[in-house]
UniProtKB/TrEMBL annotation:
Organism listed in the record: Sphingomonas kyeonggiensis
Subcellular location: Membrane
Pfam families the UniProt entry points to: Pmp3
Residues spanning the membrane: 13-36
Family recorded in the similarity comment: Belongs to the UPF0057 (PMP3) family.
Keyword tags: Membrane, Transmembrane, Transmembrane helix
Predominant location category: membrane
InterPro entries: PMP3 (IPR000612)
A single Gene Ontology CC term: membrane
Protein name listed in UniProt: Uncharacterized protein
Amino acid sequence: MGTYLARGAGRDFWITCGLTVLGFLPGVAFALWSVLRDSLATPAQPSARLPYSFSPAFAGER
């Protein structure tokens, strides 16, 4: 269920289901790895900001 909520019904979800049918621990281990692998990676820096983005700090200034 965690893989489905985090990644959708794609490849990782079906691999997790198959491993869980074969054995509970391999399915859980793969599910944890699948969900946590993206959160452990460093997030990409935004390439550019929109020129007219809303910023609450400057909402009153014009």
